[in-house]
Amino acid sequence: MDDRSENHDIEVEGGNYAYERKISGILDDGSVGFQQPLLARNRKNTTSQIAIVGANTCPIESLDYEIFENDLFKQDWRSRKKIEILQYTILKWALAFLIGLSTGLVGFLNNLAVENIAGFKLLLTGNLMLKEKYFQAFFAFAGCNLILATAAASLCAFIAPAAAGSGIPEVKAYLNGIDAYSILAPSTLFVKIFGSIFGVAAGFVVGKEGPMVHTGACIANLLGQGGSRKYKLTWKWLRFFKNDRDRRDLITCGAAAGVAAAFRAPVGGVLFALEEAASWWRSALLWRTFFTTAVVAVVLRSLIELCRSGRCGLFGKGGLIMFDVNSGPVLYSTPDLLAVVFLGVVGGVLGSLYNYLVDKVLRTYALINERGPGFKVMLVMAVSILSSCCAFGLPWLSPCTPCPVGTEGKCPSVGRAGIYKSFQCPPNHYNDLSSLLLNTNDDAIRSLFTSRSENEFQISTLAIFFFFVYFLGIITYGIAIPSGLFIPVILAGASYGRLVGRLLGPVSQLDVGLFSLLGAASFLGGTMRMTVSLCVILLELTNNLLMLPLVMLVLLISKTVADCFNKGVYDQIVTMKGLPYMEDHAEPYMRNLVAKDVVAGPLLSFSRVEKVGVIWQALKMTSHNGFPVIDEPPFTEASELCGIALRSHLLVLLQGKRFSKQKTTFGSQILRSCKARDFAKAGLGKGLKIEDLVISGEEMEMYVDLHPITNTSPYTVLETLSLAKAAILFRQLGLRHLCVVPKTPGRPPIVGILTRHDFMPEHVLGLYPHIDPLK
Q1: In a 10 Å sphere around its CB, with 0-12 CB exposed, 13-18 middle and 19+ buried, how is residue 155 labelled?
Q2: Where are the transmembrane segments (predicted)?
Q3: How close are the terminal C-alpha atoms of the chain, in Å?
Q4: Which of these, 420, 500, 546, 719, has the minimum number of CB atoms within 10 Å of its CB?
């Protein structure tokens, strides 16, 4: 849905409201007339108003992060008592606590369910293998995977297509100011939780960490909008948060809580929200986000303690540290630093290649997913069968390895979960490739990060596992299930890092487990292009602060190398999905243009006191969200810009039928009969629509004063302002509309309105194809 009006030819039968342009005026006799275009040049913005959310194609619009300072807002703010301001402050912290509590609980139950479901499947397969019923073991393994995969795909395809994928690009876009009905809906939350459990337990090369970020954001949105009217879950005491600005802060806390719950990394969660997710940040938000992730850590710690007595099934004892790495002294020399540099370069190259291939696969899958839910499910089933065949078939290529010394009773793992899988091997032997493939992703990472025995995994095993995880991770991402990229990337990076450690063993002092950690860091840097947050997350995951200098070095190198080839994976997915994301920097070619060069028009404007029929027809025949309001004689000496009125506010005003038969100002009456909360934004697109209004023919001839709902202090720029400066201003302030005013007097008071679509390269370069995008 566009945020600005453009030129269209409109002719309405059976009425006196015909328009040559979407520009209205009222003649002295009260009839409808036409003004001259406010913008002489008839230029349209043809950028897409449709984007892909998850695996669903849906319309998008911008969010109102700006404080809308109209008379109703000012009256409400002045009338607030100290107790109400205190209540508002307390509620913000209470919601942060509830977000942390809920997200921590969901993260724990997610882990609990995955470990028990996957553990039951693997134990069943292992017991059949011990009885040498190999075909039965394969069909049991593949059958369980197929059932779980079909369940996850059915939930995504038929209930909430927006839940497919990791959800991080959608959350990132929302926090940038882009909204779509289904991004954070309760149905999306439900499918994200259970679809992620089924998808990860089904043995796909996916993680639950990305979906947990989306889950945390959905929980924050559900609480922040006062519940869900559709599902009869509403809380009137949360009316203070019925605006996009407060919801943005809550969803930022939810995204940070998701990372904290997924990785058990509270500080990493805060830094992830700061570095990757949020487009706007301030110190007050930092405190609340940190408080939210601290609550997550306490909840997880308390719940995990309950599992130490063995009451959590196959979940195990666990702890806040997910992957323990060798805690001995970390000593390294010049050859070790060269090896780290090599890992960083390789990680950057492989990471950029990974992003390129993921982009191509996603575009291919989009063509399949367009054909309907049935095709989405069939694609998931096909990938599930391929994954099961590879996971069960590849270990037959690996020879049996004698159990390491000191692992008596633990190797091989028989009749229980463990990292030493016997597969087809004789007693006291294990299949190292099976230990990686026929195990949960968390246990596979734990095996790669540890250093019980340097030769625990053969070089050929590590090479096969790397190619398996690398390419199957690419193929799996994009199917209609909740799927994260963190775990596949960590698995691939850890395997080639350990492989490099084995090869450099004779000349290196570093442990192979540390090489594995550095490989994971290099691959994460090459794909995600994050540095600070990834560094802290990895240190919190492994509890090894001594690795900080090497992790920092490898992340910086891998990101620098990968940036030479393409953008980060989430940035690529945002672009591929068609989300009009505003970057924090202006493109080089924007410095050669000014604001008036790209503004679209002519605009539809309203007078301060406007005819009801004019407003009704404009709202009916357009889908735009912002309309300039012009003060005109006899109310002012000359035409001047009064401000901007939002579509949603106009609909509420028309529904209240606060009209007058005379063309006079009566804003004070509207202020006495209306409250600011009457114009609060409804959640999830449940606001008024033009079809909901019933207006009689007599009312169409009446007038309405728009001044009480008009933002009388909109952000304005001169038409000669550099487009680069306008883009930075638009993004830094979190705007939805930016008014462009003329530089010289004697002209109409507004030249046009800039929205995020006017800054998109497709629009700018479409208007000026001769411009070099790099200059």
Answers
A1: buried
A2: 90-114, 134-160, 181-206, 250-274, 280-300, 337-357, 377-397, 462-491, 503-524, 530-557
A3: 31
A4: 546
CA 645 vs CA 3, 65, 190, 429, 758: distances in Å: 11, 15, 36, 74, 20
Residue 50: what are its φ and ψ, rounded to 5°?
-120, 140
* 454 pLDDT higher than 70: no
Cα–Cα–Cα angle for 441, 309, 320, nearest 5°? 45
Most confident of 123-132, 292-301, 399-408, 497-506: 292-301
Bridge pairing between strands 178-179 and 61-62: antiparallel
pLDDT single digits (tens) 67-123: 888 888 888 878 888 888 888 888 899 999 999 999 999 999 998 999 889 989 988
Q: Which domains can be identified in the chain, with CATH numbers?
A: 82-309 (1.10.3080.10), 334-397+440-576 (1.10.3080.10), 588-767 (3.10.580.10)
Residues, the chain, total?
775
Predicted TM-score (pTM) of this structure: 0.89
Burial class (CB in 10 A: 0-12, 13-18, 19+), 309: exposed
Residue 246 has pLDDT above 90, yes or no: no
Q: Residue 528: which residues within 8 A CB-CB, separation 6 or more?
A: 276, 485, 489, 534, 568, 569, 570
CB 54 within 8 A of CB 160: yes
